[in-house]
Design a protein that fits this description.
The structure is a single chain. The chain is α/β, with parallel strands linked by helices and 371 residues long. The protein folds into 2 domains: 183 residues, Rossmann fold (3-Layer(aba) Sandwich); 172 residues, Rossmann fold, CATH 3.40.50.2000. The chain is 42% helix and 17% strand. The longest helix is centred in the first third of the chain and has 18 residues. The chain is globular, with a radius of gyration of 21 Å.
Length: 371
């Protein structure tokens, strides 16, 4: 049995893509160890089919964090039993690449996003240049690479010439699940739920969604599931704008439990702003999770989401992030029960097509040479 070490910089609690990859590799007969980090407020991990390790680091963000993590990861990979290395995103690539060269091991790289295009780097040219130097040096030498969607794969093919495969971030097929009880969140049964789930970071339309709740006429709550860089700012904004009673922050939810929360929603939001290449070409986890939960979507007209919404007719797209406009869209969708019902019916085909059971066959083809 070949030993595989997969590395990420998160705390392993909410990363569904990596969990699906790990489970597929276990199915193929690999012995899998997933390595990440432990945060001060990390939730405990539930048992899985594979082994897990979370490293405690001295730093939690910034250049010192990435340096600390990659140094520790390099030495971990250097001295642990392993036959195949898998890096996830540019922030784990350096340690994996160096370890693969020292130990003459194969390396597979998984691009969850166009890392240098994240909005957090927009105003940080020095940091972007540093990441680009690392990527320019390593990426052309990679023999096996896959990306989260066709748009990002095309960018990397054009930039470095690699044969980049596509493994989309689609969830496992889900049928006949039970929704979480709304009363657990203090939501009356006669109120609707507008849901956002995922990373709570800048340029995801969350500030505007909160402000929109001032103008929403329907009986509705905005539920935000997750945490991130701006979570405290958003909580303060809801208080300052007098909508804290209409906005619920659940904090992070383990992905094993997330689907029952998603099932409660009447509308699922994925309203990222078109501020970077990474966001422009995004195909977010939450958007695909909404589909598996048969939750009608309200999304930004970004290419990867737009083509799915138009093909399957499963929701609507926004034209602006203006809070009053968003409130009008929320009211319009929530107030048309027949249209929402039609969207949910159309979700069935989308859910059958966009599921991991179909996608993992391509993933197996990538890893079969390493069995």
């Amino acid at each position: 049995m070949k030993h595989v070490i997969i590395s990420v910089t998160n705390d392993l609690v909410t990363d569904q893509r990596v969990d699906r990859v790990c489970n597929t590799l276990v199915k193929m007969g690999f012995d899998v160890l997933l390595v990440g980090r432990r945060r001060k407020q990390s939730l405990p991990l539930k048992p899985r089919q594979y082994r897990m390790k979370r490293m405690r680091l001295m730093f939690s963000k910034g250049p010192c964090f990435y340096a600390d993590y990659n140094i520790r990861l390099f030495f971990f990979l250097l001295f642990h039993k392993v036959g195949l290395l898998i890096s996830n995103d540019l922030d784990t690539l350096l340690a994996n690449y160096l370890a693969s060269k020292f130990r003459q091991l194969p390396l597979v790289h998984d691009c969850h996003e166009y890392f240098r295009g994240v909005p957090e780097l927009n105003e940080r040219p020095g940091t972007t240049r540093a990441w680009k130097k690392i990527e320019d040096h390593i990426f052309p030498k990679l023999c096996s690479v896959y990306a989260v969607n066709a748009s990002i794969a095309t960018i990397y093919r054009k930039e470095y010439g690699n044969d980049v495969k596509v493994i989309r971030n689609v969830p496992s097929r889900k049928e006949n699940s039970l929704a979480k009880n709304r009363s657990d969140l203090g939501i009356p049964e006669d109120h609707k739920i507008i849901l956002y789930q995922g990373a709570v970071n800048i340029d995801r339309g969350l500030e505007e969604a909160i402000l929109a709740m001032k103008f929403v006429r329907e009986k509705a709550f905005l539920v935000i599931i997750g945490t991130g860089d701006i979570i405290d700012q958003l909580k303060n904004l809801a208080i300052e704008e007098g909508v804290s009673e209409k906005v619920i922050f659940t904090g992070p939810v383990a992905f094993e439990d997330l689907h029952e929360y998603t099932l409660m929603a009447d509308i699922g939001l994925s309203i990222e702003k078109d501020v970077s290449l990474n966001y422009h070409f995004c195909l977010p986890n939450k958007f695909l999770d909404y589909i598996q939960a048969r939750v009608p979507v309200l999304v930004s007209p970004l290419p990867e989401m737009k083509v799915i919404v138009e093909k399957y007719r499963i929701g609507e797209m926004i034209e602006s992030h203006d809070p009053q406009y968003l409130a009008t869209k929320f009211d319009s969708m929530l107030g048309q029960a027949e249209k929402l019902s039609l969207f949910r019916e159309n979700m069935q085909k989308a859910a059958n097509d966009l599921c991991w059971e179909n996608e993992e066959q391509e993933l197996m083809n990538i890893y079969r040479p390493y069995v």
